[in-house]
Write a structure and sequence with these properties.
By secondary structure, the protein is an alpha+beta fold. It contains 6 helices and 5 strands; from the N terminus they run H-H-H-H-H-H-E-E-E-E-E. Helices cover 41% and strands 28% of the residues.
Length: 148
Amino acid sequence: MTRLLSLFSLLLALTGASLLPAHAQGASPTVPPHDVRAAQEVVRAQLAAFASDDAEQAFGYASPALRQMFGSAAQFIRMVRGSYPVVYRPASVTFLKPEVADQELVQPVHMTDQSGSTWVAIYRLQRQDDKSWRIGGCVLLPRAGKTV
């Protein structure tokens, strides 16, 4: 877990991002419905790419900065398999309410892994020049308990 937080801290430092929700920064936490749908579709599509072991497709949903940081789809998927197994193969996925922070969309996703442990994956999505969304980072937080 410490390694994951260190990786995410590095990513935040590189992007200048913050984990504070929008309402804690004085901005409105409301995200327009079309942005919610579009951003969630990017996360769903990346999860589907992981499920089909399509490294190139999964890597394509990452932001340019994240792609540059990992260098290749092979390195990216290797990191996800090793450090984010619940993201790589979730047993269940539930999207929670997103917020805006630092001009990014912060999308928490409740996930259950194959052993029934629960997690919250906090995705940071960045709007691109073409108005699409790309994943700029993800931090994984364990939740207490297991599903039955």
